Amino acid sequence: MVSQALPWWQSGVIYQVYPRSFKDSDGDGIGDLQGIIDKLDYLSWLGVDAMWISPFYPSPMADFGYDIMDYCDVDPLFGDIHTFDTLVEEAHRRTIKVIIDFVPNHTSNQHPWFQQSCQSRSDPRRDWYMWADAKADGSPPNNWLSMLGGSSAKPGTLWKTEVEQVPPPLVPAGSSWKWDAATRQYYLHSFLEQQPDLNWRNPAVQSTMFEVLRFWLDRGVDGFRIDVANFILKDRLLRDNPPNLSRTVIHKSRGDYDSQLHIYDRGHPDVHGALRDLRNLLDGYDGQTPRVAIGELAVFTLQEWAGYYGANLDELHIPFNFSFLGARWNAKAIRRIVDATEAILPVGAWPNYVLSNHDEQRVASRFGKRSARTAMMLLLTLRGTPFLYYGDELGMRNVVIPPERIQDPQEKNVPGLGLGRDPSRTPMQWEGSPNAGFCPPGVEPWLPLADDYQQINVEVERGDPFSMLTLTHELLALRRSRCALHRGSYAALESGSQDCFVYLRKFDDERLVVALNFSDEPQMVRIAEHGEGRILLSTSLNRKEHINVGALMLDGHEGCIIELNSSI
Ligand code: GLC
Predict the structure, then answer these.
(1) How far apart are the two ends of the chain, measured CA to CA in Å?
(2) Kindly report the CA angle at 321 between 197 and 393, in degrees rounded to 5?
(3) Residues 6 or more apart whose Cβ sits within 8 Å of residue 132
(4) pLDDT for res 418
(5) 279, pLDDT greater than 50
(6) pLDDT tens digit string along 33-46?
(7) Ligand 1 test: best mutation among 191, 250, 411, most atoms within 8 Å of CB?
(8) Quick one: CA torsion of 121, 143, 189, 302, rounded to 10 degrees?
(9) Catalytic residue chosen out of the listed positions 49, 67, 75, 227
């Protein structure tokens, strides 16, 4: 049977590079684009198919690049547009696709558009942002809250400006509205006050943002990761969000933000129309190579998530599936997520899984060192596109950040809830020399390095046949070479052990079983009807034997990929 090749974003694995932390080429303690270029051979060796680079645009860095001052340039900290062009060229030469972050919901408050918007209520740019009058008592237009903790959390300090004669009443802590004393209106910031929300109902905003996409597509980028994609349109009437009485949370607790059901400040039905337009634009470039739209979404249910593929699969190719991020690490919970994802997926839609990213805890810290290996096997053997966060291939852990070195505005605004994102954004560990090869010795990296970088680094782990890096490398090679893994069907199997998650991946005659033990103890897995097989890869990296799948013994936290006999 001749089967059609899948587009690269379906068959491939996407690696996330956080540019500040990947490799510093110019010795300022902050990673940059040239640093990424210098490490492309590593990514090529590792065996990933694409990289997603978090924002590198000119920015005051209030939210480390998610506050953009110019959508069509590169911050000098990271290089310039020519370095970016070289990066694309060099990546493509190694058959690595390049995906960049697109941040449509908000700009920086330093963006010239916003500066103009602040000039007066009649400025032509006024309507580019979400301005609204105060209520009669002077309080914000509604009860919406900022997801990163509004700096209005310090009531009373915000409006004591020279312009303001009569201060309005206190803005409630965490409000996503910021009072502008000069023009006497509030503007909306769903995130930091330095990140004013754009008004996507204004056609000029939409068309300008689509021009931004064309600018980068014309430079050869292969797709976009769309930041908070479902925030871009809100309730026209700016209605209050209702209380979240059952305190349903999506994947992690966000303090007061969870006190509301966010039905009016994000996820408006009109978002779908905007995403269809965006998809249409991308499809127009498909003639050269398929371009991908990946969306970050804050959603409450898988049902809602699945809606972002579009009724006719005409919205996002990949709405990020964050179900694992809040999951308990046990076989039952993980199987439930995978089965639910498969069941809810619209016909023809392609699944995806995310285990961590720059906003989340490191896998090795959430699940533990041994489970991190099983987790990597899970991620790279499920049906759908896997997202691999830089450093997870080494087993990098969260780094404890001393209070005086905290950088993340979220930790500063809402301290003590464990929401700080610095611990998982620390410098990539390349080697055992001072500063781990991230930046020159004697330079202070922007975030502290992990204490264990002399053991956990690329150089040491490449030379160790049993390391986490070797495991990831072998998993990636196996995934690439086996159709069953990168494109086959998925079916969960009963194994007789509650602590094991076992599934079959199948393509034509090729049948591979993945068996993952989530417990500390050895477990017997019995899937008798599948007969004999051969272990292709174990997370321990020391088993390649023939086995009877009617009685497979797995060590504590061991995972195995087994090729069933009929396809040997
Ligand atoms: C997304 C980004 C996060 C950022 C936020 C605001 O969630 O992943 O890092 O702070 O959007 O842009």
Answers:
(1) 18
(2) 105
(3) 141, 177, 185, 186, 187, 188, 238
(4) 83
(5) yes
(6) 999 999 999 999 99
(7) 191
(8) -130
(9) 227
